[in-house]
Amino acid sequence: MSKEKYVIIGGVAGGATTAARIRRMNEEVEVILFEKGDYISYANCGLPYYIGDVIEDRNKLFVQTPESFGLRFNIDVRVRSEVVSIDREKKVVLVRTSDGKEYSENYDKLLLSPGAFPVRPPFPGINNDGIFTLRNVNDTDAIKNYMNTHQVKRAVVVGAGFIGLEMAENLQHAGAKVSVVEMLNQVMPPIDYSMASLVHQHLQDKGVNLYLEHAVSAFTKKGNSIEVVFKNGKCILADIVILSIGVRPETALAKKAGLTIGEAGGILVNDYLQTSDENIYAVGDAIEFRHPVTGKSWLNYLAGPANRQGRICADNMVLGNKVKYEGAIGTAIAKVFDMTVASTGLAAKQLKKNNIPYISSVTHSGSHAGYYPDSLQLSIKITFSPEDGKLFGAQVLGYNGVDKRIDQIALIIKQKGTIYDLIEIEHAYAPPYSSAKDPVAIAGYVADNILSKRVNIITWREMQQVNDGIILDVRTPVEFSLGAIPGAINMPIDGIRNHLDELPKDKNIYIYCAVGLRGYLAARVLMQNGFDKVFNLSGGYKLYRSATTPVVLDEKDMNACSLGLTNDDGNKQPIVETIKIDACGLQCPGPIMKLKKSIEDVNVGDRLEIIATDPGFKRDSQAWCNMTGHKMVSQSVDSGKYISVIEKVEKKKVTPSFSESPVECGGKGKTFILFSDDLDKALATFVLVNGAVSTGEKVSIFFTFWGLNAIKKTHKPKVQKDIFGKMFSMMLPSDTMALKLSKMYMMGIGSKMMRFIMKKKGIDSLESLRQQALDSGVEFIACQMSMDVMGVKAEELLDEVTIGGVATYMERADKSNVNLFI
Ligand code: FAD
């Protein structure tokens, strides 16, 4: 009796996996694998990295050779052999070899895993030299060879999907200046626009020219270069072009054989991955299958599902239909320079398209404990059902730990779980890896708060449309002054309880902070005080700013091209010595304070390179330059570190040039009166003062009554006091270490806790902020009258303090345009 015969078409992800599993299931059957290319079982996902020289050894791309695979699995591997037709009646395939010979091979069971082919639209000039698509090793060799034999200084990637962006990174790694052209208004189509905007920012920070909403219409050869012509008539020049505008399922053979093609355009299979012919199975990029969330048939071009389908399919082919395929939700991940971008399930835009009601929520958390080095922000957007919290999808962006978070969420979605399951995950935690509250758990907590109506949220899109009520920015004044939502009022979270009577209860109040946490806290304060029209901005100002900041087009390159010129050397900078300043780990306004201090110590014309991990630093440092007149030379980001190079410019009167901030900055001084000795109020004062002085303005603080306790020496000399002076000394805090919180006193535990948390989060202590203010030239004036009343002697106060009266204060206040009483 002849052996049962299995024929496999396609020798890479799905095909090779199925063949190997068939053999593992049955040693007796005959397996023949046809592959039209030269290679089988290679790492197509690794091809971009070989082009970029990240993978240097070409041999590493090959998991198996035809010989080693054939030997190990006892499989008859036939490369350079294309199956050109299938006779289903006779159960025979017609094979054409690369030298043109044809022959037939019969089968008992047939597997199709022909993959997908890259789209190559019939643009004029598309067949010019130097224009490539990337699917297999031969394409890779052709690209590599071209790059080795031509001067590739400018590369254009057309299409900003996952593979397009991987290519962008790798072409830059190989030394080219890269432009990415995309017809849509965003990169990475599976993710939502707001999340993609964070990627736009990163790509631009990395020096990639981003041409969004630009459709290519033609290619023209210009000497050794290629003109990439846009539909709007403009063009850019390239030395190489990679087309990455999508793939289509390879269905020609299946169609010719009369197999059913589904509505999405892929080979239709049943739950057992069997086509409309019971003897023919199909897997991989060529098939379409039900999406587990929408229930609709869709195409999913990913290696993981192709491999899993191969295993299931082999079992069904060998054992009879036993194992059902559950479908894929499109879990994908890509490295985009320093960033990792991942998505799973359905994004908001897909839910909208499918008319599925949803809520989306964005959270930003540290990838691991903030006090452990290199904790960088990780952004998570989840979509879920407003009815029962069923999870629909997630997008995760960040620098570390994106992969494990997306995998956890994908598992929950596949198991039809809810946002409550995000909270219940038992995360492994140690400071280098996570926080006791993992970012995934935080995404769950926030969603829980939304569903249980403990907070109402507003999206960045809705916030743009707001034309009623008030917009409340609960960040610090320093953050506010560096950029805010137009029309917003600044009311820092820590003082909000003292201003409740200034807020209207009958109007909508739209709250926001940097990332959403302080906004939530403020919303809770208001809601518990009778305000019921309160909304917190999901994803905070970070997301809003990124989503509303337009991508800057490199018009310079476009003009140069239309004149037929190149601008290879146009950007050369004179070489200047640059002083490096490390502000990593400091939170706003720490890095700005450090910048302010450092610039004072250098000469006009010198440059500072400040490195910070605070994601707001890029924007803040630009705003600071706008305010102070110093020159921003360059900004970049490297592995989550924000680097600004700033040149010191001769001091001049500067008019602020940024439009977002409603804070007045007319070049006058700022005066503060510190009346309180509450620890939190003293802290807020010094934060404000340091922010104010960083803009180069003259700042004075007038310490009166209890405020004097904020400027007492720790080690005081012995002084003579009357009975009342002695009583005051006994009853009042002896120095700042004894100051108490205005709320949460808890027998002194509150203050200790506050100091502990500040230390943990890398925020400067009160004493350090006070010293920074003194070092920055802030004038400390102690109120003579208060000192007399309370028996405080000048010797008990810090040496830098001057003693003054109301006249001194009035004189300073007269020269100021901001005067705050705390
Ligand atoms: P393929 O692996 O493409 O194999 C199909 C094979 O069939 C081809 O070798 C083809 O030559 C052969 N063939 C076709 N027709 C015939 C015929 N008639 N006769 C004989 N042979 C035939 N996925 C991820 O999940 N993560 C990634 O990071 C990732 N990166 C990628 C990077 C690149 C550059 C590319 C091209 C793809 C990437 N993918 C990635 C997608 C992933 O490679 C595919 O989803 C997966 O390979 C699909 O497997 P398949 O078996 O369906 O098709």
Q: What spatial order of strands do you see in the largest sheet?
A: 3-2-1-7-19
Span of the ends, CA to CA:
96 Å
Point out poorly predicted stretches. 562-575, 653-667
Q: Could you tell me the radius of gyration in angstroms?
A: 32 Å
Helix content: 25-40%
Summing up helix and strand content along with how strands pair, one would put the structural category as alpha/beta
Number of helices: 25
What does this structure look like?
By secondary structure, this protein is of the alpha/beta class. The protein is 30% helix and 24% strand. It contains 25 helices and 40 strands. The longest helix is centred in the middle third of the chain and has 17 residues, at 303-319. The chain is elongated and about 115 Å long. The relative contact order is 0.07. Flavin-adenine dinucleotide is lined by residues 9-15, 34-37, 44-45, 47-48, 82-83, 113-115, 134-136, 163, 250, 253, 284-286, 301-304, 306. Flavin-adenine dinucleotide binds at residues 9-15, 34-37, 44-45, 47-48, 82-83, 113-115, 134-136, 163, 250, 253, 284-286, 301-304, 306.
Question: Layout of SSEs?
Answer:
Blueprint: E1 5-9, H1 13-25, E2 30-34, H2 47-51, H3 66-73, E3 76-78, E4 81-87, E5 92-97, E6 102-106, E7 109-112, E8 116-118, E9 131-133, H4 137-149, E10 154-158, H5 162-173, E11 177-182, H6 193-205, E12 209-212, E13 216-222, E14 225-230, E15 235-238, E16 240-243, E17 247-249, H7 252-256, E18 267-268, E19 280-282, E20 287-290, E21 297-299, H8 303-319, E22 332-336, E23 339-345, H9 348-353, E24 359-366, E25 377-384, E26 391-398, H10 402-414, H11 419-424, H12 439-451, E27 457-458, H13 460-465, E28 470-473, H14 477-481, E29 489-490, E30 509-512, H15 517-527, E31 534-537, H16 540-548, H17 555-562, E32 578-583, H18 590-600, E33 607-612, H19 617-628, E34 631-638, E35 641-647, E36 669-674, H20 679-693, E37 699-703, H21 723-731, H22 749-760, H23 766-775, E38 779-783, H24 784-790, E39 802-804, H25 806-814, E40 816-821
Parallel strand pairs: 1-2, 1-7, 2-3, 7-19, 9-16, 10-11, 10-16, 11-12, 18-20, 27-31, 28-29, 28-30, 30-31, 32-33, 36-37, 36-40, 37-38, 38-39
Antiparallel strand pairs: 4-5, 5-6, 8-17, 13-14, 14-15, 20-21, 22-23, 23-26, 24-25, 25-26, 33-35, 34-35
Helix pairs in contact: 1-8, 6-16, 20-23
The structure holds flavin-adenine dinucleotide.
